[in-house]
Task: inverse folding
């Protein structure tokens, strides 16, 4: 979101700066009774004179403005997800983090190293890690239990300050 | 090949020691937001965009309310630029100068916002010693960060490392990123970096005070299918 904010800031900042400078130039220009430089304000004024508030085009523009404003408000006011989990450290001056995406890779790797696990896909949030396994039909319960032990062990080896709750779901796969 | 959801199992366990760890560490932060080059700029961008969203939404809502007749049926049938507005502009000679001043202020505000985007909290030099008679001794940040990343990239299990210094030249902070290849666990890499690379960086700066943020990354690899 920060990257999108920065892109929006650059685009809107440039547009606002150019518009402001142009308006100043047009006002000075018009004071000397010269024709418009770049801004088609005469056409814009004529358009606004011809259309009433209830015209379709004005209603559409108002609706688009409302939608864009609400979208921007929701995007900016929505709490940002803290996607970095902090590891315990012996050094009080060092803060080590692992992104939720990286933790998902750790869990997937730990699961797929278990014999009989065909596939693993993890989704991690700060409080919960979901792991979906596809295991062989034969000894499926044992394989899933072993995979879960491996994943729990990998999770505890990381020594996160707060480990997310692990939820493992396994499905059997017919060969 | 087909999946059989009815035969699926579902277990729900807390990671080993999860609860106890949380209790031990008390109220210390368990999660952090991604690091940013300029936290102040990020805050200002968010505030400005929120205000802009509010203004757009208010303008749109007012336009729709007028169109729907909430301010009277007569108003909704009036042209957007009515004669009353044009008469007002014609009667007040100060109107256009005020518009020009407002537009100039808008341009200046936008210029300030644009320049803010170039702001960064990174430092390029670190002050090692200050001597009023002999002068100051500085170390370029790149010399330190290159040495640290070179050391970390030499560790088994690390594919790439990046580092930068932020804060001030007298009180720098070190930010490290290490991309792992998955052959060595993140826990082990973390222990090695905190036991070796970071103390070496502190030694190079001749200080015990070097707050460090280390971010471990596992690249997005294709999901392993062992069949």
Result:
């Amino acid at each position: 979101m920060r990257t999108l904010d920065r892109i929006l800031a650059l685009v809107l900042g440039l547009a606002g700066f150019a518009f402001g400078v142009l308006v100043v130039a047009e006002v000075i220009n018009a004071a000397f009774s010269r024709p418009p430089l770049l801004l088609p304000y005469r056409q814009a004024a004529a358009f606004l004179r011809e259309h009433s508030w209830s015209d379709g085009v004005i209603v559409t523009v108002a609706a688009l403005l409302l939608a864009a404003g609400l979208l921007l408000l929701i995007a900016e006011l929505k709490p940002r997800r803290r996607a970095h989990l902090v590891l315990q450290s012996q050094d009080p001056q060092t803060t080590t983090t692992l992104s939720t995406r990286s933790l998902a890779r750790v869990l997937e790797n730990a699961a797929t190293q278990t014999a009989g696990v065909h596939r693993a896909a993890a989704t991690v949030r700060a409080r919960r890690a979901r792991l979906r396994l596809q295991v062989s039909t034969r000894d499926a319960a044992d394989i899933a239990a072993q995979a879960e032990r491996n994943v729990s062990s990998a999770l505890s080896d990381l020594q996160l300050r707060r480990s997310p709750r692990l939820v493992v779901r396994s499905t059997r796969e017919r060969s | 090949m087909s999946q059989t959801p009815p035969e699926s199992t579902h277990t729900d366990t807390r990671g080993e020691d999860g609860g106890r760890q949380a209790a031990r560490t008390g109220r210390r932060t368990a999660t952090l937001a991604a690091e940013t080059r300029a936290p102040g700029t990020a805050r200002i961008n968010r505030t400005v965009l929120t205000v802009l969203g509010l203004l757009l939404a208010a303008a749109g809502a007012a336009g729709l309310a007028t169109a729907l007749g909430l301010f009277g049926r007569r108003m909704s049938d009036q042209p957007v630029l009515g004669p009353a507005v044009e008469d007002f502009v014609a009667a007040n000679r100060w109107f256009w100068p005020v518009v020009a001043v407002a537009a100039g202020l808008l341009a200046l505000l936008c210029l300030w916002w644009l320049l803010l985007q170039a702001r960064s909290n990174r430092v390029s030099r670190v002050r090692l010693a200050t001597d009023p008679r002999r002068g100051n001794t500085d170390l370029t940040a790149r010399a330190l960060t290159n040495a640290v990343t070179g050391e970390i990239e030499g560790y088994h299990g690390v594919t790439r490392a990046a580092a930068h210094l932020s804060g001030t030249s007298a009180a720098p902070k070190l930010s490290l990123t290490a991309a792992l290849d998955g052959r060595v666990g993140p826990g082990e890499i973390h222990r090695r970096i905190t036991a070796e690379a970071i103390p070496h960086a502190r030694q190079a700066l001749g200080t015990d005070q070097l707050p460090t943020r280390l971010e471990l990354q596992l690249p997005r690899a294709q999901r392993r299918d062992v069949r």
Q: What stands out?
A: The two ends of chain B are 12 Å apart (CA to CA).
